[in-house]
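fwd from M.: "can u put these together and see what the complex looks like"

so here's what she sent:
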Amino acid sequence: MSIETLLKQHAEKDLLRFITCGSVDDGKSTLIGRLLFDSRQVYEDQLSAVQRDSRKWGTQGETADLALLVDGLQSEREQGITIDVAYRYFSTPSRKFIIADTPGHEQYTRNMATGASTADAAVILVDARKGLQTQTRRHSFIVSLLGIEQVIVAINKMDLVDYDQKRFEEIASDYQRFADKLDFKAVHCLPVVALNGDNVLEPSANLSWFDGKPLLNLLESLPSRQANSQGEFRFPVQYVNRHSSEFRGFAGTVAGGQIKRGERIMVMPSGRQSEVASIVCFDGEREQAHSGEAVTLTLKDEIDISRGDMLVRSEQRPRVAEALDARVVWMADQPLLPGRQYDIKLGVRTVSATPELIHHRIDVNTLEHQHVDELSLNEIALVRWRLSAPAAFDSYQRNPATGAFVVIDRISNLTVGAGMVVRPVTDSLADKSKNVVWHEHRIAKSQRAGQKSQRPAVLWFTGLSGAGKSSVANALEMALFQRGYHSYLLDGDNVRHGLNRDLGFTDEDRVENIRRIGEVAKLMADAGLVVLSAFISPFRADRAMVRELMESGEFVEIHVQASLATCESRDPKGLYARARAGAIRNFTGIDSPYEAPEKPEVTLDTETLSIEECVDTLLDYLKSRRILV
Amino acid sequence: MSVSQAASKAHDMSHLAMLEAESIHIMREVAAEFTRPVMLYSVGKDSSVMLHLARKAFYPAPPPFPLLHVDTTWKFKAMYEFRDRVAAEAGMELLIHINQDGVNQGVGPFSHGSKVHTDIMKTQALKQALDKYGFDAAFGGARRDEERSRAKERVFSFRDRNHAWDPKNQRPELWNLYNGRVHKGESIRVFPLSNWTELDIWQYIYQEDIPMVPLYFAAERPVVERDGMLLMVDDDRIPLGAGEQPEPRMIRFRTLGCWPLTGAVESSATTLLEVIEETIQVKNSERQGRAIDQDAGASMEEKKRQGYF
């Protein structure tokens, strides 16, 4: 074959991404090593490195341990297990493959979900001696959750059950029975011996009773999850390209369907319409763009479009809502708490979002629905999210490219969860796809505040119990009153006994407590008042949530600071003594953490400042910010 | 219509078209989400492909970030010429950083060995440059098929304030939803070619007619053989041993780095097609030509933890 013919053949290959999963010792890495080795993707120097490593870490005696080709990280080689997703590449004359090799332990469910998110198919390994395991069920469920429809069940280590056909059929029918509960389109069971290569690339004489294709042939014949080009047109605007005053292009990857030059489009969520003027590419203008292609569109009319908007056809609109129900895989050590604020990245649109409610947790081993108040690492649940602004999306099942999101912690910046939209939540207020009607007060907030010669603000005092929050806040309010300003102080006395009487001191209740106080403060600020609030409010995320509620510049975080020892010695209400005695649980500073503000607007050290000095500091600050006129 | 019928009527993209679209998507995410991105440019074939993709991603505008070349002062002469020409053609600003400290101390591969030289002139120099300009994202042309520890690295790979990589503590990366959030001083290394293989790179260079440094093509060049490595004598800074005499041989390079650390292979491949043909038949993986990878079993992982690209 000439090199040009070969290149032509390689150019025309399509791509299949698959994930491999299975229990700890089912032989995943060995199977992949075998695929790479036998399809000659392993170069000699890599192999000699593996032979060197095998003597050190291998589990196969003097034979090269093929799993070591795959287990990339030092700690994995030392522990002999796979702890992260590793991507591997090989190709045959007809197809290129990307393998996501994922870990089997329950504590790595998140890594499995990661690997599965981009896969077209899954290869699930089962040890023929052990049959279906809890892990087999869990992996199958996650694979199905992420929308993979093609599954190969590789029943491995057949040599250890004497290549017994009956044993194979028993496991295969067990699996079929279980898989009926999941959404797979096709399940292929086949017997293999990864270690020796039986039925991996070639049919095996040891398994002559098996009349199906060997693994590699099967992988070559599976349909790939081709970009959804028959579906509805979706174009999330990723980047606005302002090359010159004449050129304004909208760059993005077509996430569904296709579009032709000259077609009418609608911008979501604004609802404005225009026409595609050109489809711009480096290689020249195009008449058409298909799903999966990265292009730049220009429009006929100058309308306001920014990153995160979505171009669609007006007769094929996605859902636009401010709330949605989604299946969530939680990926962080800190649990998901309803009421706390996170950011979600839904396609190319990032909005802040709050989980309002956990409908149920799904037990990954039994598929049972369970009632829970919070979601821990590696758990999966159906969760209702409230977004800070309307967003356009589809259900994950309809279009994974416009129905998937990741959850990002606003403080640590970590990716803490992955979500798959099930449905939008529409009520009269949330359904913004119709008319957006927000009841307009006849008197504007600024008018109300102007009448009082002040600007509305929320002065949020935070600090340990006994630091002096209430004392300083009370003294400041008195000073404001005497100067003729209009204010109101929210504290434990007037909130805990009424509005929040139903809340205790668990983490969830604390979040809800702060959320309600934040909403009340917002209403009062709306009325033009200077609102003072004095609560321990120990969690940064909760204070960030309240800050987010207010207009920019309205929220003033005041850290009232004193050491725990000082607070404990003051102990004005005798609470520390009771907490130390174990009579009060979840007491901040004792058995519940206090997260100090990172960038408070004002810090008051009450160990060195008197109450009067604190008040003066605050009055100066409020004047400098023109909150007090 | 059943799903399988719909799929068969779908507009099929080749794997190369899919890789191209994925890389462009990644680059646009970076341009949209970061304040100060930069593209590391090493003059090699992967850098050339990466730069070509960047030009495609932002066409008709030039890519909205500068190129950064970390210059160890030991690159092949042909690389410097090529670098300046290519940057000008792309209409991009070219930043060049040299670790002046290292130069003042006379650090070089012959006097200090590959390990010290690479650390001072490459890893430390890179960190200096990133700090100097305050870049919050840096594109690199690394591929996951190059080396074992790279197989696990994310497309958006987080670096702490010391530019260090923590392989055990990487952010989950799902779908094409990349998390680019960083605090001040932290940064993200971005690898838009993660899913490309060496053959894909060559195929794309062929298909797109991307210009390459002549060193990739075989020619008669002055060579000495040392520890089984063929070294091209690119200037007179090489201390020749007794009996060592550069002799002309038909050689080319599979990867390019500092000339004293980059082994050549004997070859007669003078055209792109011949080079590709040789690549397909080759039995040794491409990084073997680099002295720096063989220091320890997982030496790349070690270097990456410390901030190497």
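replying to her w this: Chain A touches chain B through 85 residues (CB under 8 Å).
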